[in-house]
Structures are given as C-alpha cells and as structure tokens.
Design a protein that fits this description.
CATH topology: TIM Barrel
CATH architecture: Alpha-Beta Barrel
Strand content: 15-25%
Bound molecules: cytidine-5'-monophosphate
Shape: globular
Helix content: 40-55%
Strand order of the largest sheet: 1-2-3-4-5-6-7-8
Structural class: alpha/beta
Number of domains: 1
Number of strands: 8
CATH class: Alpha Beta
Order of helices and strands: EHEHHEHEHEHHEHEHEHH
C-alpha cells in the first residue's frame, strides 16, 4: 500500500490561496486533505471543489454535534459536496449516529454518488482524564473512548477518530475494517494544546488507518523534508506489518 494513502494533511489555514498552495505542494505525498472549521467557514465549498478537481481526497472535518435531524441534514449536504470522508461527534448519541448514517445511505443511493465514509469523533486528543473530571465525567479517557467506539460501530459508522494510545484497543474491539483516524501526531517535544500525542510511525504500527498531520508539519522549518521522512517511516511500518 502506498504510504500516501495513510496520510491526511490538515489544511488549517484561513485563505483559499494558502490551502491551494498546500494541496499543490503536497499532493504527491498526501492522500487526503482535511478541510476543517476555519478554512470551511472562511471560504466554503470552493476549497472542496478545488481538491476534487486535483483528484485528491477530501476529509470534511466539521465534527457535527447536534440533534439527529440537524446532523442528518448536514451530512446530506456534505455528501452532495462530494467529500470522501466526514465526521460527527459520537457524544451526539446512538440515535443521532444511526440516523446520520442512514441519511447518508439514502441520499447517496438516490443521487447515485459514492457514499462518503462517516467517522465518529471519540474523545478529543486535547482532553485528558483531568479535563473529563472537571466536566463532571468521572471515567477515564480510555474507558470513555472504548464505550464511544463501540457505540459508533453499533450505529454503523465506518470508524472513529481516536488518540494514539487507544488505537490497539479499538482495532481489537472493532475489527480490521474499522477506520481509525489518529490526530495529535507529533515528531518532537512540542505538544501545543494536545495532551495525548504519538509519532506517525508508532500510530501506523499500532494499527491506525490514517494519521492527521497538522502543526507538526505546517510549523516545521523544513516541512517538505519532514513529510518525506514521515512517508519513509510509514512505508517501513507498513512493510514490517506485511511480513
Ligand atoms: O494539533 P494539530 O495541529 O496536529 O491538529 C491537527 C488537526 O487535527 C486539527 O485540524 C484538529 O482540528 C484535528 N484534530 C482532530 N481531532 C482531535 C484532535 C485534533 O480532528 N482529537
């Protein structure tokens, strides 16, 4: 498998022009580009159209979290944009996840377009046990992640977004076909606001389907060299797994 297919680059910029430049620069090494709240709020669907036009994949990372009716309608619109993957918060509950999944199936059948993968966000990697406690949630991140991943699977979602230390547990619980997207990827010591981090190679070795590269790449002095070395690391991890 081409390591590129495991790499998602977060287009965490404000302007279309900056996003366009990142897509053009990195598309040989990145299989999917993540369009998040900042970029989508600023420039809307035209960035999705642009990425599609360049034959790259789009992960629409708007992390929908609302009542079932509202999220179902939002995922329908996302599917119509032609994204390859989108996400919703598992904390929105089983009914919301089920209805969104079913809305996605119906609209894509009706329009005869490919169904985007629908992924559930478990516990954000910026949250640790202490943050949960402060919110009045008296279980560990690990236990909550386990519950939410199982719920996502029960609802028929294609996979989850989860932190590095939970990859193996989810892979074991939810099976080989379940998509695991791992953000909070770091190479050096700098963690920013992330509390739970992992290196790209470790994430793939543990069984992540995708890693999300954000500030660790975009704020590096030599981003292109770094991306090439991550690509090689992932290639090694994938070949070791195949042995
Ligand atoms: O911290 P970093 O810059 O690496 O974050 C990369 C991206 O991953 C951000 O766009 C953030 O929204 C996303 N993210 C996520 N789920 C998390 C943590 C980060 O989708 N649990």
């Amino acid at each position: 498998m081409d390591p590129k297919e495991s790499i998602i680059l977060a287009l965490d910029v404000e302007h279309f022009e900056d996003a366009r430049r990142l897509v053009m620069e990195y598309r040989d090494y990145v299989g999917m580009f993540k369009v998040g709240k900042q970029l989508f709020t600023h420039c809307g669907p035209k960035i999705v159209d642009f990425i599609n036009m360049k034959d790259s994949k789009v992960f629409l990372d708007l992390k929908y979290h609302d009542i079932p009716n509202t999220v179902s309608k939002a995922v329908i619109e996302a599917a119509k944009l032609g994204v390859d993957m989108l996400n919703i918060h598992t904390a929105g509950g089983l009914t919301m996840m089920r209805e969104s999944r079913s809305a996605l199936t119906s609209i894509t059948k009706k329009l005869q377009i490919p169904r985007p993968k629908i992924i559930g966000v478990t516990v954000l990697t910026s949250i640790d046990d202490n943050e949960l406690k402060v919110m009045g949630i008296d279980i560990t991140v690990k236990k909550l992640t386990k519950n939410l991943a199982l719920l996502a699977k029960e609802a028929g979602l294609d996979g989850v977004v989860a932190g590095g230390e939970d990859i193996e547990m989810i892979r074991e619980l939810c099976g080989d076909d379940f998509v695991i997207v791992t953000p909070g990827v770091r190479i050096g010591e700098k963690k920013d606001d992330q509390k739970r981090t992992i290196t790209p190679k470790e994430a793939i070795e543990k069984g992540a389907t995708y890693i999300v590269l954000g500030r660790t790449l975009l704020e590096n002095q030599e981003p292109f060299l770094l991306l090439q070395s991550i690509y090689k690391d992932i290639l090694n991890a994938l070949s070791e797994k195949q042995r």
